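Morning F.,

Quick status update on the modeling queue. The single chain you submitted on Monday has been processed. Sequence for confirmation:
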Amino acid sequence: MDEKFDCIIVGAGVAGLAAAMILARNNLKFLLIEKGEFPGSKNVSGGVLWGSDLAKLVPKYWEEDAGWDRFINHRRLTFMDEQSAFSVDFKSAHFNETPYTGVVVLRSKFDRWLADKVQEAIDSSDYAMDSFIATNILVEEVLMDNGKAVGIRTGEEKFYADSVIIAEGVNNLLTRQVGLQDTYVPADHILTGVKEIIRFDQKVLEDRFQLNGRSGMSNEFVGYCTDGIEGGGFLYTNKDTISIGLVLGLKDLREKEKAPYDILNTFKQHSVISDIIRGGEVVEYSAHVVSSGDTRLMPEKLYKEGLLICGEAANLLINTGKAIQGMDYAMRSGIIAAETIIKAKESSDYSETSMKRYQDALENTYVMKDINNFQDAVHLLHDPVMTQKLPNLLCDFGRNFFSIKNEPTPKSRDMLRGAIKRHSSYWELMKVGFKGYRAL
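Structure tokens below.
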């Protein structure tokens, strides 16, 4: 391992593995470094990997039993107050077609599986004995020479390369070290995710959620689920478990002096949720930091001479309310980063001008177009009207609309008018509606 590599990739998450797959298939010599015991061992997250890029990396992955748990053909958005839930529910056979538009993954399992696929690509390349996936290694520094990335340092050892891809995740210490991220990140741009994995007998899970074969459901929650804290909730069906949790604003948690796990317990005790998780066994609890999806948190530049930043290290994530997207953004950014390195090697040009092609290409994909186009939705989602007043209003209306009493039934418009009067105002709703129209 004394020779210089074409590229060193730091981080074997979705972005790093996607980049490695493309480099291996194009016969570049690379070193992929992961600080965990194996790819995925340090990753506590999971959720839905949206889009079709996985099929580009692993053609016909759906014919394999490993790696992913279920495909999504059932979507649900739920507004909650203290006792009720009002849901927008959609299910379609169109989502049964391959390649699937969304698959549920547990990252500890998925990343390891995808790493095995990368190793197969390495074994089939011209550098089967010269490219490596190296685990249990912590990269402490990106080596810079006159402003150009030339390798990495881990402990006393140094490894050199023509280029470096940083895919270290949201705790972007190396991104800061090379000067592409501010050393201080305001708490109001950062969220914390807390999650439990609850196991069921597989048949019980499939019956409870009306699943067939490997079909699955994703459910987002807004309102009482966060106990008044900025954020929202989620539930995904895995093979024989569910992932249930919350994403909460760090600043709001600190100011209101509330603990994430206490809020999660309150969420689980809601009558709707307690019915869902009844009889399940909690087998894992985890917490991790995530970006809010606000572009003000993103590095202005995602490149330097010989260097690219991708995935969560670049804060490529967004939550518009209808879906949390991050893994798909990471995968696409890793693919584009690798393609940029391939072109740079062809011309032996690793200058900033050459590396800038990565960010230019990213700007022209759905990743940056969505992040830029839906910033208003990101901000609207954290508006107290959306997280508190609107869920209370909808649940109030729902209780009246679906209740049958032995007395004259008011018109629906009167029920709605009463709910608006009790929880908000027409003017406030008009403002939110206008913002929502512009945002979405």
